[in-house]
Amino acid sequence: MEPSASLEAAKHALMLFGIILAAGTFSGLLARLGRIPDVVVLLLAGMLLGPSVLGLVNIKADSTINQLILIFGSSYILFDGGASIRLKVLKEVWITIVVISTVGLLATAAITGVAAYYFLGVPFIIALLLGAVIASTDPATLVPVFKQVRIKERVAQTVMSESAFNDAMGVILTFAVLGVAVGAGEFSAGDVIIDLFKQALLGIVIGGVLGYLAAFLIAHEKFGFLAEFAPVVTLMAVIGAYISADGMHASGFMAVFVFGIMLGNQESLGFGLTRHEGGELEDYVMTTAFIMRMFIFILLGTQVDFGLMSQYLISGIAVVVVFMLVARPVTVFFCALPDRRAKWSFKEMLFMSWTRETGVIPGALAGMLVGMKAPGAQIIASVTFIAILMTILIQATTTKWLANKLGLLVK
Within 13 Å of residue 33, how many CA atoms lie on the same side as its CB? Predict the structure, then answer.
């Protein structure tokens, strides 16, 4: 009897998972030996394993399994990032985070759009759509980098919090501009910002409620009967927070980030695990987050289309250079300098200007535009992957060096 097609598909998927886990483990070891962020080596490993080189891993960007890995993996990494945020630090810098994630993202998209208009020679609305796609930073990259490179607390937590907030803004802005590009509406910066605040606020409420409930059931002195199941609760709650928020048209990523903040600050809520239980939970979260990084960045690497990139390589690099060296610094200094409460130093703002890797969310948005056959989608996808490669390979690898030069490393 011949094996069924579904059984063969399952075996093939299992083999792919094994290859990714093996490659991810080896990449993690190389990253540790080379003392560089593991996301860089994982991305390179994915490019090597992908259809353009060895052809060992070929999972389509629009496949269900790829979307599942991206959504859950990004959510869990965001949860991990949220758990490392301290509320006392957040109180000092929340104004900067809000401004840079809203007004700042619009400014980044606009400056990048102008650069794309001149260097690529595309209609301005297509250039602006490209700017919107790559404007948001990537928490799946930034959180692991700041886990491995110990930066001054308030700087690291500001950048991580911004990345959680501006993902939602990037998605909203992209589809607002897309509506104009296909003739389905008019762009309004005011409407975009209002929509963002609605989605973010609802996401914060959902994440806060679920986070408090999880902390209560895990760490309450009398009613914490789920303490020994804390790792499973985190998995369940991350999924629940994302799905609940998304179902209510709120930011799922914001919900899981706030859920992580609540669980990571349970002492401030009046709860607390024993040292043994807390250590077990921390080890579990760290291991799970690393596995998610393996899958996300290796898959992202396998989906880099070198043929498409080569068509717009020189002009695309020029756009990304303006994006990195002009749009981001202008955004950071414009948004952070007026925040008198945070009292940012020049060195801190300079570091934040450099640390803004592009990754999972922009890559997913570009893939969606290609699947929808949106105007200019091929050009947008090409420049997006150039931005992903340049920011991760250049900025992530130099994070520790720059922090050391600016005196922002924690010894």
Answer: 7
* Start-to-end CA span in the chain (Å): 64
pLDDT digits (tens, 9 = 90+) for 283-329: 777 788 888 888 888 887 887 777 777 888 899 999 999 999 999 99
Domain that holds residue 72: 65-405
* Element of type H or E holding 129: helix 124-134
In which band, very low, low, confident or very high, does the pLDDT at 112 lie, cut at 50, 70 and 90?
Answer: very high
For residue 319, the one-letter residue type is V
Cα–Cα distance between 95 and 290 in angstroms, integer? 31
Run of H or E residues at 66:
helix 64-83
Q: Please determine, for residue 193, whether its predicted confidence score (pLDDT) is greater than 70.
A: no
What type of residue is 113? G
Could you tell me which of 67, 52, 65 has the C-alpha nearest to residue 17?
Answer: 65
Q: Which residue has the tokens 């602006």?
A: 128
- CATH code for the domain in which residue 136 is found: 1.20.1530.20
pLDDT of the residue at 320: 93
- Comparing 205-214, 216-225, 395-404, the range with the smallest average pLDDT is 216-225
Give dist(CA 233, CA 216) in Å, integer: 12
**Is 50 a domain residue?**
no
The Cα–Cα gap between 380 and 364 comes to 12
